[in-house]
Amino acid sequence: MNFREIIGQDPVTAFFRGALKEHRLAHAYLFTGPEGVGKGTFARALARRLLCRNPGDDSCGQCDACRRFDAGNELRFVHVTPPTDKKGVQKTVIDVESVRELAGRLSSRIAEGETRVVLLDDPVGDDAANALLKLLEEPPPGNVFILVTQSPGALPSTIHSRCHKVRFRPIPDARIAARLVERSGVAAEDARFLARLAQGSMGKAVAYAEEGWKDLRDRLRGVAAGRAKDPENFDMGEALDALIKEGAESDEPDGAAGDPGAADWRKGLRKSRERARGCLAILSLFYRDLVMIRENGAEPADPATAAELGAILEKVSTERLLDRLETLLEADVYLKRNANVRLTIEWALTA
Ligand SMILES: [Zn+2]
Questions:
Q1: In the structure, what pLDDT confidence band is assigned to residue 167 with cuts at 50, 70 and 90?
Q2: Distance in Å, CA 68 to ligand 1 centroid
Q3: Longest Cα–Cα distance in the chain
Q4: Comparing 253 with 138, which gets the higher pLDDT?
Q5: CA of 121 to the centre of ligand 1 (A)
Q6: Secondary structure of residue 166 in the 3-state scheme
Q7: How far is the CA of 269 from the centre of ligand 1 (A)?
Q8: How far is residue 252's CA from residue 278's CA, in Å, rounded to a whole number?
Q9: Which residues surround ligand 1, an ion (CB under 5 A)?
Q10: What is the ipTM score, two decimals?
Q11: Residues forming a β-bridge with 167
Q12: Which domains does the chain have, with CATH numbers?
């Protein structure tokens, strides 16, 4: 992984290229931004570049250090992860024990002029944050800390003040769509839809494409059309439930909530909870398009849906549409917090 492969984070890439060239690196960075926009990927690319034995603009990818890094056995790269419990299940938060262990590791000095990179890309517990603060206040020489978070507010301000903050922004839809067309062979119209659904996350968009979520949209179109035709008798809850169950492999809770890559997203998308969230997100896009068409006379972003949208448009007031949108967003929050999938869907459709 190197800087060249990172898409849509040009200001961040430019910032670090400049800092590396002029040898003015901070000893700690805090990467913030929404999920799936490349924070974790960038952190690894930066670590590889910092540890490379023959670096240019980027890490070389050829030297011993780059090879060890890629194989996961470069000793100067320390990835701090949440501990596992007695049953061997990984916890979701880095605890104080993990940070003490880190402190122990860092007490072994590295050679003069060498660099060691410490990455923390999972949520940090309160006690752990205090222990971490001590390390950041008196950093052992040669170490560069990279903290990655979606919720900077959850970290104490004392940690913020010890880190150089780097903000990652959602990737523009057009960049995501172009990448899907070029590298994943997705048709342009489908790529636009998947990019909108991914809301600025390249990792999610690629996973949606690989998991064939344009078909999910087409099926949902059918469901929406069925409801528009016969709102009294059409059981939308049952139709959605069938769609969710069909592609779901398991209901297992998620493990560590770090900054997942495309492979993790893919696995996640096969869980019924994520499929349910996806269905709600696609319905939200339908409703948003309906509001835009009616209020701004906009062209539908997704022309293939225009006919169904038109049919619904005749029957539903804008207030009702906005109401529906709000309910869908609320339902997504419940699903994120582990509410029962079936009950939440039922509620979202009838509230
Ligand atoms: Zn190298």
A1: very high
A2: 9
A3: 76
A4: 138
A5: 23
A6: strand
A7: 35
A8: 17
A9: 52, 59-60, 63, 66
A10: 0.99
A11: 32
A12: 3-167 (3.40.50.300), 211-350 (1.20.272)
